[in-house]
Specification:
heterodimer; A: alpha/beta; Rossmann fold; 6-stranded parallel β-sheet; 9 helices; B: alpha/beta; 46% helix
């Protein structure tokens, strides 16, 4: 099972208003290449994807949030799963693409290549609903649950080493942030970035000062 | 922290509209943790690692929820990578100043020595709170600064409040 084929299925299944947080490296490029979604936040920050997704899910409990993480990234912040287990947000799903290696930087093995079972770790952290999938039909079924059923659901997707030939994404975290935040503001009817000039003076102030003076 | 100072921190958090507090409990800020845990105004999210806590706060900011992380200043060192990588997703850091002038334990000395240099290296605007009268005002200002700078900001609670 290749990650890019999983991402194609996800792209097809994911409703436009589902907030997706995407891990770094080639996963970012492959997801971006399938077509930009406004509701995607790209995080070029190893170890932050699942906890940032969790924070987003806790902030917006009425919105579905999906974290697309990777084994190398999640292994850097395994403790975040304890918080997912403890808070158990029903609107949150985590899909980890597990190829047993740090693929984007040359393929050195991760701990999942030597026995670490991420779904078992997630269960041990209190996440009751977990699955490990290794074929596309099972992936489709698990992804459908992650997108539509009460969570949290943790899915370990065992994939082969394979990088699709796609162009690298050219936007940085700032551009991605502004696009994502403006989308959330618009669809939620809230203000996240405070505006400038809230306390502008009355343009007649100067005249009144000179008249007084 | 003294109980009267801790009560002012809780009051300041309310005045600043900060309902959600991510916490890794520690000795100097234990009284604040105890107060907010008992107050239904607050949602308290305990974490086991300050780096994860910072990431959770960044995610909450993306969703428009005002929050802060409460931790020991040693947690700043743990959270460095998340803070550096998630620049632009502003997180409000509230931390004790272990190793401040007069703090007895030898193990706190390195915390005191590294806190401000790390905040400067990470380009995180910060202020050290040393007087009870400043607590509420500086908490409210911290939210303004977080919004204005579009950046992480930090309040460091000094030894005078303990």
């Amino acid at each position: 099972m290749k990650r890019v084929d999983c991402l194609k299925i996800l792209k097809e299944l994911t409703p436009d208003d589902t907030l997706v947080v995407v891990t770094l490296g080639v996963t970012t490029d492959e997801w971006y290449d399938l077509g930009h979604r406004e509701a995607t936040m790209y995080l070029p920050a190893m170890g932050t994807i699942t906890p940032v997704g969790l924070g987003l899910a806790l902030a917006l409990p009425h919105r579905r949030v999906l974290a697309l993480d990777s084994d190398g990234s999640l292994l850097l912040s395994l403790g975040a799963l304890t918080v997912v287990g403890a808070r158990a947000p029903r609107n949150f799903g985590v899909i980890v693409f597990d190829n047993g290696c740090y693929e984007s930087i040359g393929g050195a093995p991760t701990a999942t290549a030597t026995g670490t079972d991420l779904a078992l770790v997630a269960r041990g952290c209190g996440i009751k609903d977990t699955a490990t999938v290794s074929d596309l039909d099972s992936f489709r079924a698990a992804a459908t649950r992650a997108l539509h059923e009460a969570g949290p659901l943790f899915v370990a997707a065992r994939i082969e080493r394979a990088i699709a030939k796609v162009k690298p994404k050219t936007t940085d975290i700032f551009e991605d942030k502004y696009r994502f935040v403006r989308y959330v503001e618009r669809t939620e009817g809230i203000e996240i970035l405070s505006p400038a000039g809230r306390s502008r003076r009355d343009p007649h102030d100067w005249k009144s000062i000179t008249e007084d003076g | 922290m003294r109980k009267d100072a801790a009560a002012l921190v809780a009051e300041g958090l309310k005045a600043a509209g900060i309902e959600t507090i991510v916490v890794l409990s520690e000795s100097w800020l234990f009284e604040v943790h105890r107060l907010i845990e008992a107050d239904p105004f607050f949602t308290v999210i305990p974490v086991a690692n300050e780096g994860d806590g910072v990431s959770i706060c960044a995610g909450m900011w993306l969703g428009g929820k005002r929050c802060a992380i409460l931790m020991e200043n040693s947690g700043l060192r743990v959270a460095c990578e998340a803070l550096a990588r998630l620049q632009g997703l502003p997180v409000l850091l509230l931390m004790s100043y272990r190793g401040d002038w007069g703090d007895p334990p030898w193990w706190a000395a390195s915390m005191g020595a590294t806190t401000e240099p790390i905040l400067k290296a990470l380009r995180i605007p910060y202020t050290v709170v040393r007087r009870d009268n400043d607590i509420v005002r500086k908490l409210k200002q911290a939210v303004n600064s977080q919004n204005a700078y579009r950046s992480h900001v930090a309040l460091v609670f000094g030894g005078e409040l303990m």
